[in-house]
Amino acid sequence: MPELLKIATGKEARPPELDTFAAAFAVAGEDQEKAADHATLFLLKQLSFDPDVEKAKAEFERAQGVEERFHHDFDGVDFTANYLPCCGPS
Fold first, then answer.
1. pTM greater than the 0.85 cutoff
2. What residues make up the domain containing 68?
3. Whole-angstrom distance, CA of residue 52 vs CA of residue 12
């Protein structure tokens, strides 16, 4: 963790391996997340006769919408470029 903090704060150079690792992790995680989301929605539809399950389904779908809006707004944004959260723009 200390090494990642040094990279994030600009005290050390960002190694190219970090981008490769992040990209591989993101793809694997995205595939697993999509599969889990699909299975969750399938199960919620199977139990749609239960009012509590209907509430859970509505909340799940709302959360999916929030996640989609987040990705639309923030994917590809480099938050480390010229800005450090602790210190403002550099």
1. no
2. 16-75
3. 51
For residue 74, CA distances in Å to 42, 45, 63 come to 28, 30, 16
CA-nearest of 65, 75, 69, 63 to 22 is 75
Q: What is the pLDDT along the chain (90 residues), one digit of tens a residue?
A: 577 677 777 787 777 776 776 676 666 667 778 888 888 888 777 777 778 888 888 888 898 889 888 888 877 776 666 555 565 555
How far is it, in rounded angstroms, from Cα 32 to Cα 85? Answer: 31
Residue 55 lies in a domain: yes
Domain count, the chain: 1
Q: Which three-class secondary structure state does DSSP give residue 48?
A: coil
